């Protein structure tokens, strides 16, 4: 195929001169105008907006992108095809004919064509599995369990995170240990060492989401040459490596902040805390409306659907998460970016993809290209997911390739071949990063921790409401481990755990905190520790949490606001807090008092209102027994600002955030 | 910029034709008329509190009219295990105690008809195990479910609005497993099952109600007798807190009146009070086995006030100390003088 620029430049002029017959004179005139003018000041009407599309030569119909097309040696296929058949004289429909393959017409190997479908099935399967695990990240009771059966989730719902080697690398650097199930990530590393970034193209649920939106979202302007151009390797793809280096170095310095950018963490956080509750909200409203319809059938369907959803997909009540709007906004933003750069996230930002890309250089499986056979048709680029230069004439970027095999399927000339142990003449295996920028990124990662920690003193606690889940390790260790995956928030049966925003400093964005006003910590529940993949919340047992044989796990301490408490300040009986206090003996105890209370009505002849005496139970907290679960704060009937509230002081994980001397154990291991 | 070859020179002002004038003017008028009509149709005339004060009181009365008329049967039956007399023998199983008590009332057949949909309302309020006696004993619940099926019930539903996480309460109370084993349908208090009803009580005006518990042919109240730090003792009448959704923590500032309001709203077919193991201190949640006493007693009655008035004696309380009993008595829900009923001890 000849160079494209001649076509682009000459085709519009050549069209009419070559005797293109136009049915409508007006269109012809406009067409001339079109030819002679810059694309931005067409006189109206633009022919393809007149509704006479069928009468206009194809050259006129879509030249905008040809003009803006890259001035490079790759031909926009459509323009070339248009030159070959410059006219459509009749709007008659073409006969349905057999689909002809472009180019040589040689189809790709059957094994590859099948593998592409296997890949699609794998993507659907793993995405479905991810969503299923997310739905199951909630305790659902069962008839099968005995009363004394420990409450645990039956499935490894945090499995995707356990297999995440970026998370493992980060926490290994920060803690120098591999926490329990994170050893599974070796499996993913092994897969990468054999097949390259096959995780990105075949498994990653977040990648699948981007694959889908990259396919769905490009507008008319995002097709053809624009897409070819977008799918070429760009230098901005290096950003993910710089992010990776920064996060790993920040890990080495003691912060697992990289979890903010881990794709699995983002998927759990944004879908689990945002998309699912939103779907529940909308579904609840819609089905609630449907169950008001005066028709037995409609009501039955609505009720059964609600039953099913409440017991299988979400929980029996609506969940709310503090500050989720930002999390969902960022998800939408990064999904929308697919409109401009397909798989923007995977190519540009994903530190897990970068991590796997670093290791992909060792992969045994890869691409071989026969550059001589390439006709520069760019069909490989049209379908490329990783922007890894599959086309002829340039070297393939192994670290960027998602192994989706689209290029080999699309190639009409049998140029591209994936195989084991390929020759590496046409391959760049290592990430193409700049040494200085990489060092600067690493430096930024190193500086992050001191920068955030001089802003606030960790030992004095940023905020009295930074109440960590039960079993959480000491704050420094917590920040070394917490990857903000939000599994704990998703699993919490009472909606008690929420993503922090700036309560625990910039460093603690989206780490879990307990907001007792929304939900309290269920006394015998240890599920947050069960699902935590990195041990920021340790896997504790009920005995440890309740304090059977050991001191109980305290997450804070309750305090009374006597100015708001009904029995204390309004001489009104209440003590719901005492009723809900789950410890035994109860940490809230009541003092029986007789208190004077003024009658609300004035006496006769405008006298002062009469006084009377009421018997009251006034609640007190025993700080030695209080575990800070927040049940009292949750149920306090003083609705807006509770009369009893918990703060983090007294939490058993901290040696410094204490009130009672007896709880200070300077000898304990942290 | 190149010159534009074809620019039509149009007159700057073209007067619209009469026809166009009419059409455009008519369209504008139509939109105005439409908005006005719509606005008028949905016009909120305002007024503070309009709408909430309307409607009659809603009551759920599941009592069986004939049940009190047949004088050969007791109105209050107390079934005790003979353990108290002869130590060493195992106590009677809860199933047997429930059967004995119901026999004294004339059998379940007097309350449950063939084909009935029966709701059994135990106390599944807390994340506590049976040994803590904060929830109804699972064996008692299972016994009631099974006996209801034996009496010909089509479906027996077991449900409650829990205080703690319902999944946990239902499972760890043991009720889910035991009731499921005898065919009971377990319904968790999901948000969509609540509907606002007009209780029109002294303190309970409008409140979200757990529809599963009130949409039935017969309702059997199966509370657990236990100590309550604020109300002193609770069993049957207080058990109706479980039908309420919303923020029921508000009710404690007038707990006696709200209990009486609820008992006015819910009139069960039958009350079976579980006193197999009784929480005598630190109620209603307990949590310490030392706070419980084994009593192996079942109190069954057609009168929920009388059932409470008798059951409170089990933990050494007296009816005069429980204001909600007096309110229930005065409202005619039942009698607090249980000894005036036909009482049978078995």
TrEMBL record, chain A:
Signal peptide: none
Keyword Iron-sulfur annotated: yes
Keywords carried by this UniProt record: 4Fe-4S, Electron transport, Iron, Iron-sulfur, Membrane, Metal-binding, Transmembrane, Transmembrane helix, Transport
Entry coiled-coil feature ranges: none
Listed transmembrane segments: 117-135, 182-213, 242-261, 319-337, 344-367
Domain called 4Fe-4S ferredoxin-type: residue spans: 392-421, 473-502, 511-543, 617-647
Pfam family, one: Fer4
Descriptive protein name: 4Fe-4S binding protein
Organism per entry: Pendulispora brunnea
From TrEMBL, chain B:
Keywords assigned: Membrane, Transmembrane, Transmembrane helix
Domain DUF362 intervals: 118-312
Signal peptide: none
Coiled-coil regions listed: none
Entries under InterPro entries matching the protein: DUF362 (IPR007160), TAT_signal (IPR006311)
Transmembrane segments: 21-43
The protein's name: DUF362 domain-containing protein
């Amino acid at each position: 195929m000849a160079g494209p620029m001649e076509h682009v430049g000459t085709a519009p002029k050549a069209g009419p001169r070559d005797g293109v017959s136009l049915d409508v004179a007006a269109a012809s005139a406009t067409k001339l105008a079109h030819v002679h003018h810059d694309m931005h000041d067409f006189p109206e009407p633009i022919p393809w907006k007149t509704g006479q599309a069928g009468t206009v030569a194809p050259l006129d119909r879509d030249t905008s992108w040809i003009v803006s097309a890259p001035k490079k040696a790759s031909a926009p296929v459509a323009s070339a095809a248009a030159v070959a058949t410059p006219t459509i004289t009749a709007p008659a429909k073409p006969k349905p004919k057999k689909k002809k393959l472009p180019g040589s017409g040689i189809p790709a190997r059957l094994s590859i064509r099948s593998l592409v479908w296997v890949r699609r099935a794998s993507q659907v399967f793993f995405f479905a599995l991810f969503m299923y695990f997310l739905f199951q990240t909630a305790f659902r009771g069962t008839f099968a369990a005995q009363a004394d059966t420990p409450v645990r989730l039956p499935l490894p719902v945090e499995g995707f995170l356990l297999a995440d080697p970026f998370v493992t690398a980060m926490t290994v650097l920060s803690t120098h240990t591999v926490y329990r199930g994170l050893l599974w990530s070796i499996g993913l590393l092994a897969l990468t060492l054999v097949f390259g970034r096959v995780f990105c193209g075949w498994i990653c649920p977040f990648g699948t989401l981007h694959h889908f939106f990259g396919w769905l979202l490009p507008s008319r302007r995002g097709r053809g040459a624009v897409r070819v151009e977008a799918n070429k390797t760009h230098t901005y793809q290096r950003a993910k490596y710089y992010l990776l280096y920064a996060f790993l170095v920040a890990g080495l310095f003691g912060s697992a902040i990289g979890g903010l950018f881990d794709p699995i963490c983002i998927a759990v956080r944004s879908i689990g805390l945002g998309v699912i509750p939103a779907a529940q909200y909308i579904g609840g409203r819609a089905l609630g409306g449907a169950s008001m319809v005066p028709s037995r059938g409609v009501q039955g369907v609505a009720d059964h659907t609600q039953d099913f959803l409440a017991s299988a997909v979400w929980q029996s009540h609506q969940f709310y998460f503090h500050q989720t709007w930002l999390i969902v906004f960022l998800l939408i933003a990064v999904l929308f970016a697919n409109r401009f750069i397909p798989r923007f996230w995977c190519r540009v930002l994903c530190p897990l993809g970068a991590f796997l890309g670093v290791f992909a250089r060792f992969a045994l499986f890869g691409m071989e290209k026969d550059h001589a056979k390439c006709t520069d048709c760019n069909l490989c680029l049209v379908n490329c997911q990783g922007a890894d230069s599959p086309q002829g004439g340039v070297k393939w970027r192994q670290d960027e390739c998602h192994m989706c095999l689209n290029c080999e399927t699309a190639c009409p000339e049998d140029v591209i071949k994936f195989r084991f142990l390929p020759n590496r003449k046409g391959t760049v295996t290592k990430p193409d990063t700049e040494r200085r920028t990489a060092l600067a990124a690493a430096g930024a990662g190193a500086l992050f921790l001191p920068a955030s920690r001089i802003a606030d003193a960790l030992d004095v606690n940023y905020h009295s409401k930074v109440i960590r889940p039960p079993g959480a390790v000491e704050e420094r260790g917590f920040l070394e481990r917490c990857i903000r995956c939000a599994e704990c928030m998703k699993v919490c049966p009472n909606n008690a755990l929420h993503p922090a925003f700036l309560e625990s400093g910039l460093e603690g964005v989206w780490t879990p905190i307990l907001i007792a006003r929304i939900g309290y910590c269920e006394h015998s529940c240890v599920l947050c520790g069960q699902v935590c993949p990195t041990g920021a919340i340790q896997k504790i047992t009920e005995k440890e949490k309740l304090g059977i044989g050991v001191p109980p796990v305290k997450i804070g301490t309750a305090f009374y606001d006597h100015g708001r408490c009904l029995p204390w300040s309004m001489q009104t009986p209440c003590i719901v807090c005492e009723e809900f206090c789950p410890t035994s003996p109860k940490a809230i105890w009541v003092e029986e008092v007789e208190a004077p209370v003024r009658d609300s009505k004035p006496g006769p002849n405008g006298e002062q209102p009469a006084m009377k005496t009421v018997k009251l139970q006034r609640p007190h907290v025993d700080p030695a027994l209080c575990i800070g679960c927040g049940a009292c704060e949750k149920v306090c009937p003083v609705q807006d600002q509770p009369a009893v509230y918990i703060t983090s002081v007294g939490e058993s994980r901290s040696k410094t955030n204490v009130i009672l001397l007896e709880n200070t154990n300077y000898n304990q291991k942290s | 910029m190149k010159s534009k070859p074809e620019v039509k020179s149009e007159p700057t002002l073209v007067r619209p034709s009469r026809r166009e004038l009419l059409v455009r003017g008519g369209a504008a008028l139509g939109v105005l008329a439409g908005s006005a009509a719509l606005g008028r149709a949905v016009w909120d005339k305002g007024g503070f509190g309009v709408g909430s004060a309307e409607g009659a009181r809603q009551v759920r009365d599941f009592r069986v009219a004939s049940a009190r008329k047949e004088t050969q049967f007791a109105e209050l039956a107390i079934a005790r295990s003979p353990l108290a007399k002869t130590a060493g023998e195992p106590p009677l199983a809860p199933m047997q105690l429930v059967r004995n008590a119901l026999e004294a009332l004339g059998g379940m057949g007097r309350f449950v008809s063939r084909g009935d949909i029966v709701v059994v309302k135990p106390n599944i309020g807390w994340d506590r195990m049976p040994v803590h006696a904060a929830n109804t004993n699972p064996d008692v619940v299972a016994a009631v479910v099974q006996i209801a099926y034996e009496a010909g019930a089509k479906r027996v539903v077991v449900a409650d609005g829990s205080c703690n996480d319902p999944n946990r309460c239902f499972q760890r109370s043991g009720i889910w497993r035991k009731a499921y084993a005898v065919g009971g349908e377990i319904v968790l208090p999901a948000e969509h099952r609540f509907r606002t009803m007009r209780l029109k009580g002294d303190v309970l005006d409008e409140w979200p109600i757990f529809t599963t518990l009130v949409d039935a042919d017969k309702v059997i109240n199966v509370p657990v007798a236990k100590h309550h730090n604020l109300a002193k003792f609770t069993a049957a009448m207080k058990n109706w807190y479980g039908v309420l959704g919303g923020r029921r923590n508000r009710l404690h500032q007038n707990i006696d009146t709200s209990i009486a309001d609820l008992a006015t709203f819910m009139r069960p077919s039958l009350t079976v009070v579980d006193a197999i193991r009784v929480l005598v201190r630190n109620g209603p949640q307990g949590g310490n086995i030392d706070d419980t006493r084994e009593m192996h007693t079942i109190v069954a009655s057609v009168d929920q006030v009388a059932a409470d008035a008798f059951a409170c004696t089990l933990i050494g309380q007296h009816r005069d100390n429980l204001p909600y009993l007096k309110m229930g008595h005065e409202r005619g829900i039942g009698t607090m003088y249980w000894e005036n009923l036909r009482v049978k001890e078995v």
